[in-house]
Amino acid sequence: MRCEDVRPLLPEMAEGNLREAGEAEQHLVSCESCSAELGRYRMVVAELAALTEVLSEPLPGFLERVISQIPERNWRTVAHRVASDERVHYAAFSLGGLVVGASAIALLWWRVARRTLAPVEGPTATA
Amino acid sequence: MVTHELLAACRRGDQVAFEEVVRRTYRHVYTQAFRLVGDRQEAEDVAQDAYLRVHRGLSGFRGDAQFETWLYRIVSNAAMSHLRKRKRFGELIVESPEEPPREFPSPVRVEEEAVDRDSLTNALDSLPASLRVVVILKDVYGLSCREIGDQLGVSEGAVKVRLHRARRKLKEMLFGSEVVDEM
Q1: Per-residue model confidence as pLDDT tens digits over B70-91
Q2: Measured between beta carbons, which residues in chain A are less than 8 angstroms from residue B16?
Q3: Which partner for A5 in A1, B93, B150, B174 could form a disulfide, CB atoms 3.0-4.6 Å apart?
Q4: In angstroms, what is the C-alpha Rg of chain A?
Q5: Average of per-residue pLDDT across B109-122
Q6: Which of B113-122, B137-146, B169-178 ranks highest by mean pLDDT?
């Protein structure tokens, strides 16, 4: 094969695909110019593949907007979200404190009321 | 990196696991969308659409393919749908005219050469849309020529021709073109 036959194959060869590998490879061994050209194509293909990890930064708030668009699917998710929400934690602690305080007050009031309203026991008259 | 355990949790309907998948992949998804549509706001729309598709399709994802490859395919589909809606899809399928080589630099030893990433990105941006989308999907995101053909509505052969031209143009923009001497 000659250079003009091999050059059109180089972009495809750059990723390791080659239909007429044998003949083209023989040419590449002996032709420094075509071999260098293949090296350049390989560099381009390798750098293109490496672009996967070159990332652009989206507009602020993008992640939150994406997550807010996702439809909720089951009660466990809702329960988990509620359980992991700090505002729910504060509300639960407040409510818990309120319940404990109210219970203590109610118990105290009940004991005082019981003592006040209990009938005075005296000796029973006998006929 | 999205693990099998995380995907299994998503398939069981665990929304928190799905949110974790989004957290781990959103920069990749946004970047791919941006490379394909070329506008930040539109890229965000494409990424949101892609995640809705992923959410609907995860139960059908069996895990025999790599998740990332599957995700790239979905983002690509979402981008193509977006461009169709915006009447910009035509620019992807129109044939760009073949241009003659522009310059004839002196041969350089390949060991002394390197591809500068910014130059590559600029070269990629200056390609016609019909070539750029093919080379991005194939060489950056690893889709097959057949898959790209299906998404663009062109034959696998047409995709290969565009890929060939795109690589050659990129190589010429980065290293210059060479005159082929007969041996």
Answers
A1: 999 999 999 999 988 887 766 6
A2: 77, 80-81, 84
A3: A1
A4: 42
A5: 76
A6: B137-146
Task: Please say if the pLDDT value at position B183 is more than 70.
Answer: no
Return the CATH architecture of domain B1-88.
Answer: Orthogonal Bundle (1.10)
How many distinct structural domains can be found in chain A?
A: 2
Specify the domain boundaries for CATH 1.10.1740.10 within chain B.
Answer: 1-88
Structure tokens at B49: 């659409």
Among the partner residues A11, A35, A73, nearest to B167 by beta-carbon distance: A11
Asked if B167 lies within 8 A of A45 by C-beta distance, the reply is yes
Mean of per-residue pLDDT scores for chain B: 85
Q: Which of B15, B11, B8 is nearest to A79 (CA)?
A: B15
Task: State which residues form the domain around A17.
Answer: 3-53
Q: Angle formed by the axes of helices B67-85 and B40-57, to 10°?
A: 130
**Sole residue written with tokens 């006040």:** A116
A80 CB within 8 Å of a chain B CB: yes
CATH topology of domain B91-183: Arc Repressor Mutant, subunit A (1.10.10)
Which residues lie below 8 Å from residue B102, measured CB to CB, with a gap of 6+?
A: B172, B177
Residues 33-62 on A with a CB inside 8 Å of B are 33, 35-37, 39-41, 43-45, 47-52, 54-59, 62
Determine if the pTM surpasses 0.80.
Answer: no
Is the residue at A86 inside a domain?
yes
ipTM: 0.83
Would residue A17 count as lying in a domain?
yes
Q: Is residue A107 situated within a structural domain? A: yes
> Which residue of B52, B110, B120 is in closest CB contact with A40?
B110
Q: Do A70 and B52 touch (CB under 8 A)?
A: yes
Integer Cα distance of B169 and B173 in angstroms:
6
**A73, part of any domain:** no
